[in-house]
Amino acid sequence: MDVTPILESLNDAQRQAVTAAAEPMLVIAGAGSGKTRVLVHRAAWLIDVEGISPHSLLAVTFTNKAAAEMRGRIEALLGTPVGHLWIGTFHGLAHRLLRRHWREAELPQNFQIIDSDDQVRLIKRLLRGMDVDDSLWVPREIQYFINAQKDEGLRPKHLDDEGDANRRQMIAFYEAYEEVCQRGGLVDFAELLLRAHELWRDNAELLAHYRRRFAHLLVDEFQDTNAIQYAWLRLLAGDKGVPFVVGDDDQSIYRWRGARVEHIHRFQKDFPSASLVKLEQNYRSTAAILNAANAVIANNSSRLGKNLWTEGAEGEPIRVYSAYNERDEADFIVGRLRDWIAQGNLRADAAILYRSNAQSRVLEEGLINARIPYRVYGGLRFFERAEIKDALAYLRLISNRDDDSSFERVVNRPTRGIGARTVEIMRSYARANSCSMWRAAGAIGSDELNSRAANAVLAFLNLIEKMARDVAELELQEKVDHVIYASGLVDLFKKEKGEKGETRVENLLELVSAAKGFERDPAEEMSELDEFLSHAALEAGEGQADAWEDCVQLMTMHSAKGLEFPLVFLSGMEDGLFPHQRSVADPNGLEEERRLCYVGITRAKQSLYITHADQRRLHGMDNFSQPSRFISEIPDEFVEEVRPRVQVSRPMHSTSRRSAKSAPGNELGIRLGQRVRHAKFGEGVILNCEGQGAHARVEVNFETAGTKWLVLSYANLDLM
After folding, report:
1. Domain termination residue (choose one: 455, 489, 523)
2. Is 36 marked active-site?
3. pTM, 2 dp
4. Which of 59, 117, 169, 531 is the most buried (most CB within 10 A)?
């Protein structure tokens, strides 16, 4: 058999991983080292060369986009469709499993997935039903507690209150929440994974079946697995499975949402026969950028260790700019972007990364003033928009009348005379009779409601029933189209004046387009509408809004993982901001911050700028900070200092490389942060400096007079 097509594009380390014997393997894949290529070629090798049936492969990744890419590349490599191959996200595969075995999972056949917002609304209703003050018990904190327990594989019965009254109450909320979800057939994202794990754990025959079927497990982004995901994989693999996991301990940056880098170390203990292959050749960045990244991450102690290298060019040095304040920093970045664009480069090939979302405001102002189009990556996503969720709620009710979350969302949207009191009466009846809101609405009569409210409720029930009859024989996109009009949503938003209303209508129409382009999974057995609704819930958050325009990309460093850009700015590189203040004193937290810095550096392909400011106003406070310790961890030979616009003396820091070169301001002893006194305005602090010689001026924040720009040669400032 000719194996050349599968191996010809691989380097030696990649080839070693792809052609390995059928035994557990851990592949440590550095940034830009071709990890997806290895996974795809491993699957193709097993199918085409080893003769493994595609049905015996299960491939897991973390986004639907990555799963679709993997499927497409395997098909291209093999030259044959692999439509029935189980490739998907943890949540997607768990959902498929539960749909097939809903009885064994103790779920109704038409169970509904609820997203994060629906989950919070459900908790709020629960608190009202328990007569609990939600100002004392914050719904999102309860949500976090519940999801965190599920991520650890824990039910309420497994939890001990440890003598803590607050924890005891949280456990009670968790227990009540579970009862509501079970009664309504509702499954949140964390529940998908926990229920799928319990399905295998508690059904030995079913587990044995899937262990026989999925002998080969391919896992992407292994460093991002949480406890329940790892337990799910470990249970499926058993003692005879062949897990092939690919990850990078240096890119584990999601500890705050349950990811455990320790799983990479645990894998070698759980599978002692596992081989280890390191992918260190980088195909993305220049040597200077890789050397900087290697030097920074080498300061972490708990890592398996690797060293990225490239056969490509040495490239430009990393340029470090010492700004006076956040406005000076933004001006510098905008200026370099103007130069970049003027050279004929695409705006979309440039990205500004920051540690905190709050940093974007000043950067956005600078880009707006410079008339440079930009996009904040990770803005409100399509399936998360309110009008889309309204339409999906109507569709869910058509599919499942007992969906309480959907019922409450649209029972009075558009308004139809069903107020909060009427809803509470229905809610109370549903609780008392252990039934859904829909059944409660149909059961209560004039004794509980006045005639006007009763008629309004009846009209709503009739509307849903009529829509269900009208769309029964229609194609999926025709169903969606009919519902957005018959529900009154389109008319509602047409009445909303201005661009916002127009945008909402356009989004509803785009939902019709999404339904038209929806491709069914041939392995699924549910109705097309239910599959589309599940797709919408699982896909929420991956399709970015307004991505078509050529614009500069702004994003947090967490959002940047998996992306790459020819030009990258790492802004706000100051101790206390990055690394974040809450992580500085925590060794584990500091190592994760350093991994985040490593991720940020390795997003750059050609040019990397690092900026920091002496003074930064953030969260309403003025902060005077030292440059990030991560800057000092980059060897001098890979760094080029970018001279500030004005050579003015500023406070020197042990980790800074800036020169104390003489300049007009120095002769007067002027420095940022210097306290001064003015005859008219009183005392203040110097925030900024610009210009030279007789034109040099300073920005001073006076305690009583506010911020003023003053020409140094006329200001007669007294230094304090």
Report:
1. 523
2. yes
3. 0.73
4. 59
